[in-house]
Amino acid sequence: MLRSLGGLWALHSLGGLWGLFLLSSTAATKVCPRPVGIPGAQYKPEKLVYEPGNVVVYSCLPGLLRQGGYNWATCSSAGVWIPATLLCARRQCAPPDPLENGNITYADKFQSVAHFSCKEGFVLIGANSSACNESGKWNESLPTCQPLTCPPPPVPAFAQLSDYRPNERNVSGYQDTVRYECQAHYAMFGNDTATCTASGNWSHVPECHDVSCDRPPDIQNGFLSFSPHGKYRYQETVTYGCKPGYVLEGPRVSSCERNGDWSARPQCRAPCRVNIKKATVLYNGRKTNVEDIAHGTIQHGDTLTYFCKDSKGKCAHLTDSHCQDGVFTVPACYKEPKWLWSTEPSKLPVCSDAS
Ligand SMILES: *[C@@H]1O[C@H](CO)[C@@H](O)[C@H](O)[C@H]1NC(C)=O
Ligand SMILES: *[C@@H]1O[C@H](CO)[C@@H](O)[C@H](O)[C@H]1NC(C)=O
Ligand SMILES: *[C@@H]1O[C@H](CO)[C@@H](O)[C@H](O)[C@H]1NC(C)=O
Ligand SMILES: *[C@@H]1O[C@H](CO)[C@@H](O)[C@H](O)[C@H]1NC(C)=O
Ligand SMILES: *[C@@H]1O[C@H](CO)[C@@H](O)[C@H](O)[C@H]1NC(C)=O
Ligand SMILES: *[C@@H]1O[C@H](CO)[C@@H](O)[C@H](O)[C@H]1NC(C)=O
Ligand SMILES: *[C@@H]1O[C@H](CO)[C@@H](O)[C@H](O)[C@H]1NC(C)=O
């Protein structure tokens, strides 16, 4: 190498401006011009002039293949290139067989590199690309696309599989599903169904948690069934009841929910005293004397329909009043008959809407 560099080696050792001067004055006559191009190839480095001993390296353009020859040229001390003999040519590999359940694409128009992919639900076994090499052969063998499988699904703590049907090789196929159940009194968080995904794993595996509820609150004028222990577990229930005469509003049964709360808080609604002695009303669809209503009380939600005389005393309007949690008000339009001989309003004809 030193020999081919000739005087240049000496110049470098002098260094500095003096060296630069020597370079331009003594080497000027010996430089090489740009090297000749080779079809289908490029070279590096690219410069305007090359000094004796400089080397350029040729490479085939993308998509072209080296068919042989030397790929480097040297600038001789005489200022002449010792040329490269590189030969570049298009691909010469036979197209690969079609990929079953997959697809072959090419990186360039010369089809020198093939890329392999599989359709959804299949996994590529083998190389994902292959290059056409100098001997006209694909350097990697054709891969295959195999149906995707998921291993047996994970079973989270306190859970069990309720609907799991693996194939004979104990694996599941793409988009197969499995269902989970939590053990008794464990609450599920997440979706009960997991799916075998395109990544070969299971999506949405739920969790099962131990859930408990505190003792449910007492209700006024009522009672509830207690369990002997103070704690209740998920889905355990209590049953509410009311003192006689009181009406339960809301569900009778309340259950411990996943959030640790109770599903229902019913209430006991009070009965009402009917405070006007003399009246004939409609009660449960029958004309009833108020005095005959048992104990003079009606239950929450019950309705009494009063007969209100109209201003001329010729007919009666029907007016409802409801018992609402112990509160009952006789309709303002109702007047107790003042005289023994007054016509009892319930005996009058019912007023038509127009009057
Ligand atoms: C294969 O890939 C090409 C290019 O992306 C596309 O046009 C073609 O539809 C694909 N074929 C299949 C079967 O996926
Ligand atoms: C092909 O495989 C290589 C190495 O296994 C990987 O780095 C590359 O991302 C893959 N290419 C594609 C398109 O999957
Ligand atoms: C095939 O060619 C590619 C691209 O040149 C290279 O990355 C890969 O390692 C080669 N494979 C083999 C088996 O030589
Ligand atoms: C081209 O690839 C084939 C198959 O991998 C291999 O047998 C052959 O040696 C390769 N040729 C060159 C020049 O790398
Ligand atoms: C499949 O898995 C179950 C449970 O893990 C095991 O009992 C059974 O032997 C397995 N069957 C095969 C064919 O591997
Ligand atoms: C569980 O997931 C499936 C699919 O993603 C969905 O159809 C279903 O409605 C989900 N069920 C619940 C309870 O969220
Ligand atoms: C499934 O695998 C993919 C890719 O490895 C990953 O990104 C994803 O988080 C995994 N999903 C689950 C539920 O493990």
TrEMBL record:
Keyword flag Glycoprotein: yes
Compartments (UniProt record): Secreted
Predominant cellular place of this UniProt entry's protein: secreted
SS bonds (residue pairs): 32-75, 118-145, 213-256
Stored Gene3D superfamilies: Complement Module, domain 1
Sushi domain location: 30-90, 91-147, 148-210, 211-270
Signal peptide: 1-28
Keyword terms: Disulfide bond, Glycoprotein, Heparin-binding, Repeat, Secreted, Signal, Sushi
GO molecular function, one term: heparin binding
Pfam families associated with the record: Sushi (PF00084), Sushi_2 (PF09014)
Entry GO CC: extracellular region
PANTHER family, A to Z: BETA-2-GLYCOPROTEIN 1 (PTHR19325:SF549), COMPLEMENT COMPONENT-RELATED SUSHI DOMAIN-CONTAINING (PTHR19325)
Summary of the function given for this chain in its UniProt record: Binds to various kinds of negatively charged substances such as heparin, phospholipids, and dextran sulfate. May prevent activation of the intrinsic blood coagulation cascade by binding to phospholipids on the surface of damaged cells.
Protein name: Beta-2-glycoprotein 1
Organism: Xenopus tropicalis (Western clawed frog)
